Amino acid sequence: RASLHWEHTHLALPPPAPRAELVGVFPFQNQGDRPVTLLETQSSCGCTVAELPQRVFQPGEKGEIRVVFKPGDRTGAQRNTITVTTDDPAQPRVRLVLETDIPVPATLRPGILLWRLGSERDWKTARLTLTPGWSVLEPEKPEAAEILLEETETPGELLLRVRPANTDTREQWELPLLFEQKGGGKREIRLFILVR
Question: Helix or strand or coil: residue 19?
Fold first, then answer.
């Protein structure tokens, strides 16, 4: 039987505050009769890091692996794994799983607006559907385009209208849209604008 006994190998945590780290702790104990060495940890994503303050655990000794997830702009269901490799022949690898669901402030369809090089400067529209409890802040007005944010008759639905300043040169840029949650918290979604 394996020497390391894990209190749990799966953690489902509440969503972090915007731009905050999420920390999960995986406690264990060496219940074998010889020392166990944690050789390495490997993460499924660069956004998740395992902290190992100690590598060798004597019989009866307790320890923990602290896993830090930095979500950045990620939204939706997140499942990150840390594979721990040990010198325990009965259990050389253990997979630790950290899960959370980061709320999506809105859906944006389409996520890219495209004009052909030399085409008319027509208005193009993206539809924003807000998640309940979220609102969108007025976007900054870029020099490269005209922007209009219009409410529709449907609550929580807005139209984002965009018209480029010109279509004579190739351009590619992002329009950041900032969302605010009731009770605090902000998230950003980007609309991609292309002239090709």
Answer: coil
Structure tokens at 137: 């802040």
Q: How far is CA 80 from CA 98, 119, 166, in A?
A: 5, 45, 43
The tens digit of pLDDT for each residue in 16-30 reads: 876 689 999 999 999
CA distance 62 to 30: 6
Q: Where are the beta strands (DSSP E) in the chain?
A: 4-6, 10-12, 22-30, 36-43, 48-51, 56-57, 62-69, 76-86, 93-102, 106-109, 112-115, 124-130, 134-136, 145-151, 157-164, 171-181, 186-195
DSSP letters for 157-168: EEEEEEEES-SS
Q: Which tokens is 22 given?
A: 């999420």
Instruction: Render pLDDT for 53-81 as a digit per residue (tens, 0 to 9).
Output: 999 999 999 999 999 999 887 888 999 99
Global pTM reads 0.69
Distance CA 13, CA 159 (A): 34
Cα→Cα distances 154→3, 33, 166, 170, Å? 59, 66, 32, 35
